[in-house]
Design brief:
By secondary structure, the chain is an alpha+beta fold. The protein has helices at 2-21, 39-52, 173-184, 195-204, 225-238, 269-280; strands at residues 26-30, 36-38, 58-63, 70-71, 78-86, 97-105, 113-121, 125-131, 138-143, 146-152, 161-164, 188-189, 208-212, 242-244, 264-267. The structure holds 6-O-phosphono-beta-D-fructofuranose (F6P).
């Protein structure tokens, strides 16, 4: 596993360099989800693939920017599913973006995730790692050319942040009522539109709720299970929080297709209990 984490760190240094020095415009292409690709989406994908190809323990990789799986090593054991540059449409307004990695053993699905990590490219570059077999969620930071240990991350039982995603006009009534009730109780809105910095903020500020519900225009949500939702679910669980799709833990889900999405809610215990009660009551 360490060699995968080292490949992530090398990719992160290269992507950070690309973000500050390369053209941030759009390419002529679209990704598998029909979204316009930035030149940086394509470049970040190439960088990560190049670095993961050097790791013998990886059997297969799958990128959010491509269709299907690519076979790397017969003797490998892991499948790495990654989103090379999540939230990349925020680059032109200079907000933070990130890379997300889910590492699976066996068929890629929630219960087979064995490790995950993400990198935030903000004013500083930080990365967070979790493994199924360990209860420590470790954060590191790029200092000049090397990553240094910063701290372990632990969520409080209840937070103050309410990061509510998706177009409000399309929210179901029970979801709208829950979010409004939270604001009435004193929760504060913090939402950039980048999953990585939005969840990083909740993890570092002790807790709260990030929600991306099913909506009338996106009944299966927007965020992809393998590339975005499962990796963060492992990190939240290991940090002492939870991740659900409404009532069930997201890690109990299995995608039929690598790009399948799910509604999702990440948070500390108190906020997730509220989500389960709200969604269970319907
Ligand atoms: O997956 C793409 C993404 O940019 C996430 O990083 C983010 O959480 C989400 O979309 C934001 O979507 P919306 O603008 O619909 O709230």
């Amino acid at each position: 596993m360490n060699e995968i984490f080292e490949a992530v760190k090398t990719s992160a240094r290269r992507i950070q360099h690309a973000i500050i020095s390369e053209d941030s415009g759009y390419s002529q292409n679209q990704n598998q989800s029909g979204e316009d690709q930035l030149k940086l989406d394509i470049l970040s994908d190439q960088i990560i693939e190049e670095e993961l190809r050097k790791v013998p323990s990886i059997k297969t990789i799958s990128s959010e920017e491509k269709e299907g799986y690519q076979h790397l090593n017969d003797s490998g054991v892991y499948t790495v599913c990654y989103d090379p540059l999540d939230g990349s449409s925020l680059i032109d307004v200079n907000l933070s973006v990130g890379s997300i990695f889910g590492i699976y053993e066996g068929e890629p699905k929630g219960e087979n995730i064995v490790a995950s990590c993400y990198v935030v490219y903000g004013p500083r570059v930080e990365a967070v790692f979790a493994q199924k077999e360990s209860d420590e969620v470790q954060m590191i930071r790029l200092h000049e050319d090397a990553f240094i240990d910063v701290k372990t991350i632990n969520l409080e039982p209840k937070g103050v942040i309410n990061a509510s995603g998706a177009t409000q006009q399309n929210w179901p009534a029970h979801h709208k009522a829950m979010i409004e009730q939270m604001f009435e109780e004193g929760y504060i809105l913090r939402y950039s539109g980048g999953m990585v910095p939005d969840l990083h903020q909740i993890l570092l500020k002790g807790g709260g709720l990030f929600s991306y519900p099913a909506t009338s225009d996106k009944p299966e949500g927007k965020l992809r299970m393998l590339f975005e939702v499962f990796p963060f679910a492992l990190i939240f669980e290991k940090a002492g929080g939870r991740a659900v799709e409404g009532t069930k833990d997201v890690l109990s889900l299995s995608p039929r297709h690598p790009h399948d999405t799910t509604p999702c809610f990440f948070g500390s215990d108190s906020e997730i209990e509220r989500v389960v009660a709200t969604y269970g009551d319907r």
